[in-house]
Structures are given as structure tokens and as C-alpha cells.
Target: histidine kinase
Amino acid sequence: MVRYRLLMLTSVPIIITLLALIALTMYWTVMYTWQNALKNARADLAVAHHSMELLQKEQRMRLTALSESYDFQYLLRNDEAKLSEWVRQQAGRYDLDFVVVHPASALGEFSKANRRLLMNGEEQTFFQQLDEMALEDLHPNLPARAQIPLLSEGEIESKGLVSRSLIPVFNEQNNLQWIVDGGMLLNNSTSLVDRIRDLVYASDTLPEGSIGTVTLFMDDIRVSTNVPLDSEQLNGRAIGTRVSDEVRQAVLASGLTWVDRAYVYDDWYVSAYEPLRDHDGRRIGMLYTGYLEWPLIRIYLTNIVELGVGIVLVLLISGLVVYRGARDLFRPIEKIHQVVKAVQLGLDRRIGSLDLTPDHELEILGKQFDSMLDQLHQRNEVIKQASIELEDKVKARTKSLHEKTEELEQHIKLLNQARSKLVTSEKLAALGELTAGIAHEINNPTAVILGNVELLQFELGDDTERVKEELGAIHEQIDRIRNITRSLLQYSRQGGVQDEVTWQHLNPIVEESLTLVRSGTKKHAIQIETNLEAKCCVEVNRHQLLQVLVNLQMNGVHAMDDQGLLKVGTEDWIDEQGKTVGAVVHITDHGCGISKENLERIFNPFFTTRRSGTGLGLSVSQGIISEIGGDICVQSTSGKGSTFSVYLPDKAVDNSGLQLAKIEE
Model:
């Protein structure tokens, strides 16, 4: 409707503007929120780093306090033999995991950097990765406390990550006398990471539902963490799990500080990592801080939904205002639109009054449109009348032309029939004259040969047994020549001896033809199946029909290479109106069949695909059946067999009569 189209035209600019604002707002908020989240993560990592430094400083201060205590100084001056044992017992008092003293002679056990600082009287605190034996040297309980089962690998990590402080102790001569060695084992140190977490993530600093986590890594293994094994239930600690390959390559391999979103064990966290280095500057672990990403995303999505709801409400309110404000303009336009659609459907409608002021643009447009419709209606009436007159003239001319066309087609059809008959007659006359002469010329020498052979047999008497096979072959060839000449004469006379055409029952003639065929196929593996159901009598020449049936049946036998099943059946010939007009004989073989290119040529004289055939059998048979008004049709599939159907009318007609219609396959 026009109303909604105009509403769309007025609303689309608003919608596009709001969508653009939404896109910009989403982009800016995403960028700002994410960048702010990364800055917070970096700041959290810095706080954790400084917290770790403060803890190490506190650790160093405790060792300094130990070395300056009265008891330590007393034993140092009066009973150095008891000093080592007494120092080991002070670890728990100073909240340390181990405290030992080394004599100055053990300075060589430390690294070059450690030795230089100790000789200069400088205190030092550093991270160090120790194996099981080194841990046991510091305290017998440390190896057991340092063991961490690797959750996904089924192995146990025995090395330990320690925060170690060295305090040099000099004698009165300002010579290095003792080295106080103490620190904390970071493996499984949950209180330490929880203390750092509480310093980094104060209450109400994270989004609702999020958790802050801190982790200490030895290489890529979490040795102390408050990252839960289940981020939803907040159960357990992910100690003994490894960091992702991406983070390991960036922090441990390249020594970079990595700040981004990371998959921490079972969930995504906004994370920050930095390397932990030992006293020689080697990267031996990592410090991690991070918090769950999903609560941050949830807050962002909530803001987007609230923004979207607000925008939809603005669109609805603005659309309602536009719709109500333009309603008076929509109604006249809708009326004009409805009239236009009615006119398109062929209805005679007018706009009429639009209830507007006379000088209103839409009122003037409506009057002009009504005037145009009136003029169009008048012109349509004139065109309709002219169209009716023209249609009558066209019908009259078309009827006359149709009648003349039918008359011309009938004349052409008769002309083609006459031409076909004339051509056929000329061919048959010429062929008959030729075949009669050939047969006569062949019969004369054949008779001489036959007579001499019979004379030769008479003269030889009993000696004919020696040449019996040769004489038999001569007789066979003479019979073959006589059969060929008989076929030629038969074809030249178009049916042979003109016996009388009489009413005959079809089934006895078919049975007689089968008797002749069986006698000629006794030595062959031929089975004959009959189904004689014809009841109608037909007007035929008995001898000629017998000749046709025998010829067709023998053709079937030859097509099957003298073996197989030959089916012969008869039935009444029923026309389209259900009236009996004659009888039909079907002869079916299961031989080689006839190819499509040969199917149209099989009734041509002298056409044959057999070496011993004359090519006259089907042509003569077609001529015999055509003389009485019948027809021979064939259906064949190459490689499967053929069916010849002989259609015989109940009343024969001569050549000058009407030929029966060609039976379609």
C-alpha cells in the first residue's frame, strides 16, 4: 500500500542513521572495552610483579634480621660448630621454607654472579630452579613438597622453583666468613599466590561473576596457582597443567611480555604473562595474572541489548508519529491507488471527490485522472467495435481459405496415389517382362541338363551307385534353378496361377502350412507353438495364402538358424469401432531380428540378407496379400526376434478397389 511505502520512505533514513550509529557505537565500545581490558591486565601483571618483589624483599629482610640477631652473633663468636644446626631450626620462626649457612670456603658452589655480589658484601634475592638433590641439601622435606603430578601426562615433576636470598656475613677483619642462604619453595605454595591475588584483585574491581587468578610457572608447568580446575564450580587448582604453545613460544622462547586473551586450562581469560629469570638471566618460569573473559563479554552484550532495545523503541515511536502525521495524506493516495488497480483489472471505476480543498494538488490530480479515464473508455469502445468487424472479416476469409486448402490437400493426396500406382505398374511391367524372359532362357538349358542326367543314369544302370552323390548334387541344383525360375514367374505374374478366390476358414489353412513346414524341418531343432483362435471366415486364394504362410514360417526358421521356438497364432481382426473386419495371422520367431535400416527394404524385390535367398519371397507374398485388400506388417527388435502379421479382410477386393489402411506398428 502507498501508506506503507511512504512510511518506509520516511523511516529508512532514520533507520540507516541509527544502524550507522549502532555500528560505530559497537566498534568504539568493542575497541575501548577490549583495549581497556588489556590495559587492566597489563596493570594487574605489574602489580603482581611488584608484589613478588616486595615478598622477596621481605624474605631478604627476614634473613638479614636472622643474621643480625643476638643468638646468631653469639654463636658466630663463641660456638661456630653449633651455628649451622641452629640456623636450620630457625626456618619456621622466620616464616621461610629453608635457612642454611655456608662457610666462606663454599663460595665456589655459587655462580660467578653470586660470588661477585657476595664478595662485594651485597645481599641478593633471585629465582632458581633446583633438582631433587639440591633441594634435599637445603632441607630434607623440600623434595617431597616440590613434587607435582602432571595431570594430563601421568608423570611427576620433581624439580622445584625457589625464591632464594643470599646474605654475606663478614668477620672483624672484613673478610667473608659465612653466607646465610634462605628462601621459599614456590611449588604448591598456594598461600603465596592467594596473597598476591588479594593484592592484585581487590574486592569489587572485577565484573560480577569473574575471578582473578595468579600463577607461578616453572618452565611451562603451573607449580603454584589459584586457577580452578572447573571455572564454573570454582573447584580445585590447576597445578600440574601446562601453558599453551602460543604463550610458551612468546614468553619462554622469545622473552616477551604477552597480554591478550588466552585459553587457561578450561576457559578463556584476559591474561598477562611475563618471564621469571634466575641469577644468570635465564628464563626459568613465568608469572601470570588474569581474570575470566565471559563476565566481561556478558556485560558488553547486556549493554548492546539495552542499546538495541532503546533504538527499537525510538524507531517505533518515530514511526508512529510519522504514520499518524501523514495519515491525511495517505488516504487520498490510497484511493487513487485502488482505482488504478481496479482499472487494470478491467473495472469501470472513477476517483471522484477526495474530500480535499479544490486547489489541493491531489484533488486536481484526481479530476484529471477521471477525465483521462472517460476519454480512454470512449476510445476503447471505438476500438472494440472495429475489432469485432475485423474479426468477422478474418473469420470469413479464413473459412474460405481453409476449404480451399482441404480441397487442395485432397487433390494432392489423390495425385500421389495415382503416381505411386503408375510407378509401381511400370516397375512391375518391366520387371515381369524381364523375369519372364530370364526364366524362359534358364528353363531351356535346365531341361536339357535334366534330360541328359536322366539318360546318363539310364545308361549307367547299376554303375550309377559310384556317382550317386554327384548325381544327387546335380538334381538338387537343378531343383534349385527350377524353384528360382518358378519364383521369378510367380512374381512377374503378380500372384502366379489365378485360382479362384473363395470363402475359407483360416485355421485349417494355417494347420496345413504348419504340416508342410514340419516336414521340411524334421532334422532341425525347431519347436512350433500354435494358438489358433480366429473364428471369422475370409475370402482368399487357398493356394496363394498357403504359399505366403509357408514362406513366412520358413523365413522364421532360417532367422533362428534352424533351432528355437516358432509361434503361430490367429485371431479375429477387430477395427476401432469394435467390428470384426477379417482375421490376422501372427508368426513370431526368436531369431536375429531385423535392423532398423533394413526394416523398410525387406518387401523390395531381390532384397535379401541370406546368401542362398532370392529376395522375392516377401515381395511376392506382399503382392499376393495386397491383391485381396490385405496387408503384411512386421515388428522386429534386433537380436531378439521378429513378428510378421498377415491381415486378411473378410471380403476380398481387387487391385482397382480401395486398399486397406496401413497397419501401424
Summary: The chain has 16 helices and 18 strands.
